[in-house]
Amino acid sequence: MSYFMGLDIGTTSTKTIITDGKGVLLGAGEAGYPLDVPQPSWAEQDPDLMFEAVLKSIQEAIQKSGIDARQLEAIGFSTAMHSVIPVDADGKPLMSSIIWADNRSVAQVQRLKDEKLSSSLYHTTGIPMHPMTPLPKLMWLRENRQDIFAKAVKYISIKEYILHKFFGRYIVDHSIASGTCLFNLNTLAWDADALEIAGIREDQLSEIVPTTHIMRGMKSEFADLLGLNPDVPFVVGAADGALANLGVGAVEPGVVAITIGTSGAVRTVVPKPLTDPKERTFCYALTENHWVIGGASNNGGLMLRWFRDEFSFPEVEEARRTGKDPYDIMIASAKEVAPGSDGLLFLPFLSGERAPYWNADARGSFFGIGLHHKRPQFIRAVLEGILFTVFGIGIALRDLAGPAKEIRASGGFARSPEWRQIMADMFGYPVHIPKSHESSSFGAVALAMHAVGALERLEDVNKLISITDRQEPNIEHAPTYLELYSLYDRVYHKLKDEFSVIAEFQRRGHK
């Protein structure tokens, strides 16, 4: 038997899966860690707690699979993007990891936009200018934590930190590097102009390697602890978003992957780097011949949880009495409301927004409230508002890569037939639900299989994936959603300046 492991370091937990050579899940492990918010708009995590979670999740997956871990043929590695960890000469963190959700560098981003540098950086690096990006985070460190900036020998991501712990080398793959705004898409090297803007040297960053690069010789202390062969091929892998596409089989032209969990993302694969004249989308590497274009939204299922916690007390109480899931009760009530929520729109920007607007100051709004609107309309408006955001990203992808022919959906929302139906109606395409495990960790397995020759072509991943559900669009609902999306987009642009004013007021209120 052939056995493969996929490891995915996410925002709230690390997940590990073990499959056989046909992609059948044999065991899974998961270990969580806290998200620290020391100040409003900041988001940090302890790299050492995350490393402990990596070890625990691997051990749990091995134990549940029942295999001899020394028989693993390869391990693939996925992580979230955009983290920054300054480390000293011994590889020890000088501070917590500043993660993708951190918005402390708003001023640096605005300065780059005012100085007309953001556009050229975008077309060179493929990353719209936003505080999530490591480049402005480095600028913030240089300007606000000179004590740390002066001591830092390297600036690395959580992936590089884990790899250094395991192998003693600073290595970063094309995919993670392509999320830094420091990586040139055309030369596949660190970009000199971006480094100068950040104020760092190339030797302060890791060696760049392809996503299929294989490392061997894991330190014996960790190989022994985990029961692994120290020479097992450890495939450096890619970023979680790129691997999520691979994990659901969306690697061919016209196949779009939509993931909605806490946040949301829409992505498709093209054969070469591609940027958007309107700067709405990112471009990340998967392999040299597979580039993932798309956009991520800050505001996915988190919006429904917020509404549940703050306004859905009757549904929560009913769930407590009956043992049902409160989300199921909420969505069932929304199902009785006509598409368009009787003229109620929700702009779901409670934590700013990334694609397609890339505006950290964006704020949430209900628009069009009338006396006839009750809680079910508000719930449906939240569901539709989340999907309007991903629909806007889909429009950008259509402009760049042509129309979609199929949607592959994953994430917590994909379990809801009602939510899937809204998506199918809005996009006008069938929505397919793959029977995959966690898409990023399964994508890490597939890339590892490809790297060691067990999967000849990346596109062959579809031989390992079965489709469990298919939602057909109701074309009668499409005109309603097109009309309301146009209004949704106009409302955003009319409020754009006012969002900045209220965001600044909110920041002052926390000082």
Description:
By secondary structure, the chain is an alpha+beta fold. The chain has helices spanning 47-65, 106-114, 118-125, 134-144, 146-151, 158-167, 174-177, 192-198, 220-226, 240-247, 301-311, 313-322, 326-335, 375-401, 417-427, 439-451, 478-509; strands at 3-9, 13-20, 25-32, 44-45, 72-79, 85-87, 97-98, 154-156, 171-173, 183-184, 189-190, 207-209, 214-215, 234-239, 255-260, 264-270, 282-287, 290-297, 345-347, 365-367, 406-410, 431-434, 467-471. It has a seven-stranded mixed beta sheet, with helices on both faces. The protein has a six-stranded mixed beta sheet with strand order 3-2-1-5-14-13, with helices on both faces. The protein has a two-stranded antiparallel ribbon with strand order 4-7. Helix 14 packs across helix 15 (417-427). The protein is globular. The model has no long low-confidence stretch (mean pLDDT 95). Belongs to the FGGY kinase family.
Q: Top keywords for this entry?
A:
single chain, alpha+beta, Nucleotidyltransferase, domain 5, 40% helix, 21% strand, globular
Break the fold down into its secondary structure elements and pairings.
Layout: E1 3-9, E2 13-20, E3 25-32, E4 44-45, H1 47-65, E5 72-79, E6 85-87, E7 97-98, H2 106-114, H3 118-125, H4 134-144, H5 146-151, E8 154-156, H6 158-167, E9 171-173, H7 174-177, E10 183-184, E11 189-190, H8 192-198, E12 207-209, E13 214-215, H9 220-226, E14 234-239, H10 240-247, E15 255-260, E16 264-270, E17 282-287, E18 290-297, H11 301-311, H12 313-322, H13 326-335, E19 345-347, E20 365-367, H14 375-401, E21 406-410, H15 417-427, E22 431-434, H16 439-451, E23 467-471, H17 478-509
Parallel strand pairs: 1-5, 5-14, 9-12, 15-21, 21-22
Antiparallel strand pairs: 1-2, 2-3, 4-7, 6-8, 10-11, 13-14, 15-16, 16-18, 17-18, 19-20, 22-23
